[in-house]
Amino acid sequence: MKRKTLSFLTMLMPIVSIGAQNIVHNELERQDLSELKSTQKILKRKVAIARFSNETRYAKGLFFDKENDPMEKQAVDILSSKLAASEKFILLERSDLDQIIAEQAINKFDTSLVGADYIIVGAITEYGRKNTGNSKLFSRSVKQTVEAGVSIRLIDVATGEIVYSEEAKGESEIKSKTVLGFGGEAGYDATLDDKAIEVAISKLVENVITNCMDRPWKAYLIGEFEGKYIMSGGNSQGVAAGDIFEVFSKGENVINPQNGMILQLPGKKAGKIEVVSLGGDTANNEFSIVKVIEGSIVDGELLNYVVKESIL
Is residue 95 classed exposed, middle or buried when 0-12, 13-18 and 19+ CB atoms within 10 A define those classes? Predict the structure, then answer.
């Protein structure tokens, strides 16, 4: 019996060893992938929050000022701070941005005015406040609850495509309790409004970030300089000397008859460029000097090209 057991254990040892090796190998693969993601170069996208409207009836009295709605401003501030905290975006201040067509005009006719890569259009779609209570013989409890609904649309300026659209709801509450007349009673709490909106926006921010970062970073050729080319984008977006990008001819623009939006068809690859040096000191005036290392670019037709990051 002992010999049979010993023989079985002898046969089992290689299998256990192989299994352990596979586990270690898989774990190393996960670690390598994690390290790759953490060290991967991030090129920041330019984002403008076009508007964040209040579609509810809350606080819309006789003297309501649509241009100074505190709920709209708070929603924009919350969204801006969360996008900025990700360190993956450059947020452009465009308080009077007039929809996508204005941005498309910037990119198409005057590339020296570098527009946003994406526009975010949002709305507060639901808002409600309620007080609930429970009274007993010697105690009384009260709960204030605020519920808010927020919708967001993420639009690619170059194509006019809505790349992400979703709605989320958030809730915040505060409780108070008194026993035999002792204990605090909470009055009207205005901060619950902000907290409910923040909870709703927080549920959407990660998807906004993912949809932006999953698409290739883009820039434009905006001029010529001593036999080289000037590319929009610079240090603040993560561009560095030695970076290599791909250049594509712009696809044909067509109009979608369903909504009247201008759509840009995919273009053809024209070549590759390498960053030689950087210039400018702010996100609005930064540029890169690049040289062609593969393919060719037609001088005088720079507006017909778009630069994209190389996808490995």
Answer: exposed
Q: How many residues does the chain have?
A: 312
**Look-up of token digits 């000097």:** 289
| Contacts of residue 46, Cβ cutoff 8 Å, sequence gap at least 6 | 89, 90, 92, 114, 115, 116, 117, 118, 237, 283
Report the CATH fold assignment for 218-309. Answer: Thrombin, subunit H (2.40.10)
**Fold classified for 45-213:** Rossmann fold (3.40.50)
CA angle 235, 81, 191 (to 5 degrees): 170
Distance between CA 264 and CA 60 in Å, rounded? 40
Token pair of 190, please?
């205005």
Is 218-309 the same fold as 45-213?
Answer: no
Residues 45-98 pLDDT 10s: 999 887 788 887 766 655 556 666 777 888 888 999 999 999 999 987 655 455
User: Residue 239: in which H helix or E strand, if any?
Assistant: none
